[in-house]
Amino acid sequence: MSELGDAPVSVTSLVLAALDSVKGRLREFDRANAQSFIDHGEAVIGLELICDQLYEYDVAVPSAARDLIRSASEAAHLDPAGWAMLRIDDSPADSHGQIVYLARAYFRKRHQLEGQSPEEVLRRFRESEAPADIEQLRGELRSALASHRSEDQLASLWLETAEGSYDPRNDGMTMTEWLTEVLEVLS
Predict the structure, then answer these.
(1) Which residues contact 96 (CB under 8 A, 6 or more apart)?
(2) pLDDT digit string (tens) for 36-80?
(3) CA 177, CA 125: separation in Å to the nearest integer?
(4) Cα 68 from Cα 13, distance rounded (Å)
(5) Closest CA to 105 of 26, 167, 35, 185
(6) Of the given ranges (9-13, 38-42, 49-53, 179-183), which has the lowest mean pLDDT?
(7) For the residues of 37-59, what is the DSSP string, one character each?
(8) Alpha carbons 124 and 95: distance in angstroms, whole number
(9) Higher pLDDT, 104 or 3
(10) Nearest by Cα to 105 from 128, 84, 139
(11) Distance between CA 64 and CA 48 in Å, rounded?
(12) Ramachandran area for residue 174 (φ above 0: left; ψ -120 to 50: alpha; else beta)
């Protein structure tokens, strides 16, 4: 249940802070839609969209982000069920933020259900996301390939830290080959 129309400034400020706190975890399309609702005086609908999309894509958020979402929800008198179901993630993934975002937002089990190949998912990412974010991802990938010497470390980064559900080894690729392919498709 939404409080439509002019949400109080404090609610709007909290929703803006919540949106900022999940940057890199929401798909760019969803982030832009939430921002549009906020910009048009519908901060509560924007907040509901943020919660719905994080839940839909099973994206874990830092506890600080969930606290902001909770505060905004409480200020807007929303049902706690909207934010309480969000998963918490306090893993140290900051240096791999865009890799984590790619894996969690685009390479969850859903991509397999939609019948898309990994390359198609990567092209959709390239077409949907901001050029600066794509360039940041490319830098993170180059760094990961240069610093992680073993396949096990690269697999841990993609499958454990980033929580990607697609394992390229099942398609006969090494993790090095997979991350190199991601770089090539994003070029």
Answers:
(1) 140, 144, 157, 161, 162
(2) 999 999 999 999 999 999 998 888 887 778 888 988 999 899 998
(3) 19
(4) 10
(5) 26
(6) 9-13
(7) HHHTT-HHHHHHHHHHHHHHTT-
(8) 23
(9) 104
(10) 128
(11) 18
(12) beta
Question: What letter would DSSP give residue 166?
Answer: -
Q: Is the per-residue pLDDT at 113 higher than 50?
A: no
**Pure H helices in 77-130:** 81-84, 97-106, 109-113, 118-128
Q: Write the single-letter amino acid at 53.
A: Q
What tokens were used for 170? 């099942």
The pLDDT value recorded for residue 8 is 45
Tell me the C-alpha distance between 60 and 170, whole Å: 25
Distance CA(74)–CA(81), nearest Å, equals 11
Residue 44 confidence (pLDDT): 94
Straight-line distance from the first to the last Cα atom of the chain, in angstroms, rounded to the nearest whole number: 43
Q: Radius of gyration (Cα) for the chain, nearest Å?
A: 17
Q: Any idea how long the chain is?
A: 187
